[in-house]
Amino acid sequence: MDPDTLLKAGFGNEAQALTQRPSRTISDAPIPFSEAATLTRLGRQYGIESIMMLGLQSLNATFNAQAVWTWHSVKQKGRCTPVPALSTECIEAANLFRIIGCSRLRITALYACSAIDPIHLAIGVVRADGFVEELP
Question: Which residues contact 26 (CB under 8 A, 6 or more apart)?
């Protein structure tokens, strides 16, 4: 989908700014998890691969197989836990990776889910936009 269609859909200057910089890479600046997930969802929904890939690059940095070894180096009360910044975001990540068909990253996100408070697995977590994410 082109920038004009996004602008007509009500995404304003944000969509225009994102689509004018398709060559941006994750090394330019770290993208917070919620923004990377949003970019990935919007890019997939509107068929804008460059936006989806921008979000996925950031998510891949957090949920790749190498990240598991980083998580194991963070100890809390004698058990391995995901990096504290992830907390309950792993539920949102697991669902997002399922939707886009990225099973390699989904496995890592599900592994991270095994280390969070079980109450979040039972009732879900609220995303930044107010949507409640639950594991299916």
Answer: 54, 57, 58, 61
